[in-house]
Amino acid sequence: MIFWHLGLTVLIVRYVFRDPKMDLRWILVGSLLPDVIDKPVGSIFFHDTFGSHRLVAHAVVFPIVLLAIVMVSTRRDTARRRGAIAVVIGCFIHLLLDGVWTSPETFLWPFFGFEFPRVAGSEFGTLVRSMLASPMVWLGEGVGAAYLLYLWRRHLTAPGDLRRFAGDGRVALRRV
To answer: Which end of the chain is more exposed for a tag (fewer CB within 10 A), N or C?
Structure first.
């Protein structure tokens, strides 16, 4: 679910943090990063090995380790640190939106062992077909796309808005 993750992550970040310096471009990257990592690995390349499309990047340890690396390897009050923390925030919200905590073996990996639960229908083609046939997926995608459209219409249509967003990832905080 691409628009679900993009739209709802930005909505949550704008509502919770209300930070005008937050670079939403990095939030968007983080909102998709767990799927960009795990879906190809678990559904395409190593399906026979893992049998799941939710692997390490869907475990809470992934954004925690990522955050630790960011804090150790970046300087305080720099754009690099703010951007990297935005990616981590996007990853945490991705896990929230996926409801990964309902699968403790995945969410709390490796604390319940190093195996991931096998998921029927996690082969790439089957996964895509089942997602396209699911009304909940379409509803989620619609909600996410609607918020992104609202954000664009409300904050990115004035002259210079889109150019500014492309340059620094910021939108005005007039309204969430």
So the answer is: C
pLDDT digits (tens, 9 = 90+) for 53-69: 778 899 999 999 999 99
Q: How many CB atoms lie within 10 A of CB 135?
A: 7
Residue 117 belongs to what H/E stretch? Answer: none
Residue 114, SS3 per DSSP: coil
pLDDT (tens digit per residue) in 116-132:
777 766 666 666 667 77
Please enumerate in sequence order all residues whose Cβ is within 8 A of that of 14, keeping only pairs 6 or more positions apart, or say none.
Answer: 22, 173, 176
Q: Which of 163, 17, 2 is nearest to 86 (CA)?
A: 17
Question: Measured between alpha carbons, how far is 89 from 30 in angstroms, rounded to an integer?
Answer: 7
Residue found under tokens 């919770």: 16
For residues 61 and 107, the answer to whether their CB atoms sit within 8 Å is no
**Closest to 97 (Cα-Cα) out of 132, 48, 133, 147:** 147
Contact 151, 9 (CB under 8 A): no
Contact in structure between 176 and 11 (CB atoms under 8 Å): yes
CA angle 126, 52, 120 (to 5 degrees): 50
Question: Could you tell me if 11 and 73 are in contact, meaning their C-beta atoms sit under 8 angstroms apart?
Answer: no
Q: For residue 127, which amino acid is it?
A: L
Write b or e for each residue in 5-43: b if 16 or more Cβ atoms lie within 10 A of its Cβ, otherwise e.
bbbbbbbbbbeeeeeeebbbbbbbbbbbbbbebbbebbb
